[in-house]
Write the structure tokens for this entry.
Amino acid sequence: MQKTHEQVWNSCLGIIRDIVEWQHFKTWFEPIQPIALKDNVLTIHVPSQFFYEYLEEHYVNLLAKTLKRELGKEARLEYRIMVDSGSGGNKPLTMDVSGQGFRTYSNNEMNFPLVIHNPVKNPFVIPGLKKMQVDSQLNPIYTIDAFVEGDCNRVVRRAGKTVAEKPGSTSFNPLVIYGGVGLGKTHLAQAVGNEVTRLHPNKVVLYVSSEKFINQFQDHSRNNAINDFIHFYQLIDVLIIDDIQFFSRAERTQDALFAIFNHLHQSGKQLILTSDKPPKDLEGVQERLLSRFRWGLSADLQYRTMRPGWRSWRKRCAMMGSKCPKRWSNMSHTIFRVMSGN
């Protein structure tokens, strides 16, 4: 009896699962869906062009061996690549590509067990550390409780709490927080991250400014290690990027961000972005990125009235274990009145 494409692919996964590290298997093989099997050609669906290129570069040896073990030496692999997931009622756009690497291997050239050497370089740790440990880069002082709710921020604060409770599982993905300087964008974004680490300690959360993200990309580009950079960020469960308006001057970095965004979103991971303006007003950012920024919720932080801003400042003092001196209290009270126009 001839095997179905699901049976063949599941048999391949059974072998691959025992060879590659669990995190690599979860990242690079679980998202793959078998589509068809005809004349010993297995077609698999992959979520992006970058995903296809990474498989061809890092895992073609393993894929060729396992597939030929199931279908014989004439086995071939084809990819159906998701080019655009579609929006506004449009159908998803895909393209079919043959597995190029299969032409260079015969069934006798590869013997099990295969050892895959794919160390993931972490831009936040000192090179050479064997185990990758990601420091969230979050400031623990920023919490949801310290972010006082008012009419100016009620929607975005409650959206942030919802995201923290169910990261990647709500319609608020990405959550884009925008507003003027000093309104608490960074506070709220990091507060959501801190709440995720409290509620879901096994999730990998990372906060990064756009400036640091761009600098890291440029460093990896100079070292011909862009794939390592993208792969690292694709392993994050909750990615928080601050001040995305600065990507306007970094065209190549936008390409990397596009690959990272697609992979995280399609893998059910959460993205949280901050900006000084709504996505529709961002200049110099690729339209394909802007369209993805609009997939979730874009919520603005408006200028506070005196009362919420003053309460937030006093609450933060209390959380730090200090009291506001009376003369500071009077002075700050006046400042808040001037800022709020009251």
